[in-house]
Amino acid sequence: MIYINQRRQWMGPENSNLTAKQYFVVGQVVFFHRRFISLLLRHPDNYSILVPFNALQKIIYRVGVRQLPKNDAEKAVWADLWFVYIYSKYNWLPHDIFADRVLDYDEFRGTDGRIVTMEEALLDKIPLMPKKNNFMDLLWFCLKTMATGNFVDKEMEEVHFLRNFAGEAQFYAYNAPKHLHEDVS
User: Fold this and answer.
1) Whole-angstrom distance, CA of residue 140 vs CA of residue 82
2) Segment 115-158, tens digit of pLDDT
3) For residues 179 and 183, what is the distance between their CA atoms, to the nearest angstrom?
4) pLDDT digits (tens, 9 = 90+) for 31-76
């Protein structure tokens, strides 16, 4: 039923990128199951039952976005829906959000490469290198690409970008300063 409804909505004559949409429709079915299980478990990272679903979702994303034009912002909508929204809808963060960091939460590195003290970091005595965080970088990619890119499929822009952008921007604004990800300027 989910597949039929998604196919009817995204594979119609008014839609664009129909080859890519075949992957989007299947990806939406996988996402529905991931989201449903996440709600039952109270968080997407609580149990390993989601590991195969997450892996399948990533494969569908990688193969599907190759079918989109290079400058189409739809790829950011897919990433946002499948990899960010599952957390941001309930203001959750991934359990392993700090796993990809080189430095601990209270460690800082100056632009000259040396580790600096907390005092130096807090008082801006030394310019700091950003602390990279893959989840917040993904969220920034989604926001930036959706806001500045072109949508060939206007329905995708209306249904997903315009509906989700404000909430995702608020989620980013609330969480990004805590996690000091890559410089966005």
Assistant:
1) 15
2) 777 667 666 667 766 656 778 888 889 999 999 999 998 888 88
3) 11
4) 999 888 888 887 777 677 888 888 999 999 999 999 999 889 999 9
Token pair 């309930």 is at which residue?
A: 90
Cα(8)–Cα(11) distance, integer angstroms? 6
Residue 25 token pair:
């429709």
User: Which residue type, as a one-letter code, is found at position 73?
Assistant: A
How much is the pTM?
0.77
What distance in Å separates the CA atoms of residue 163 and residue 160, rounded to the nearest whole number?
Answer: 5
How many residues are recorded in the chain? 185
The structural domains of the chain, with segments of one domain joined by +, span: 2-91+129-178
CA-to-CA distance for 116 and 165, rounded, in angstroms?
36
Cβ neighbours for 82, distance < 8 A, ≥ 6 positions apart: 27, 30, 31, 34, 57, 61
Q: Which long-range contacts (CB under 8 A, 24 or more apart) does 41-46 make?
A: 43/92, 43/95, 44/86, 44/87, 44/92, 44/94, 45/94, 45/95, 45/96
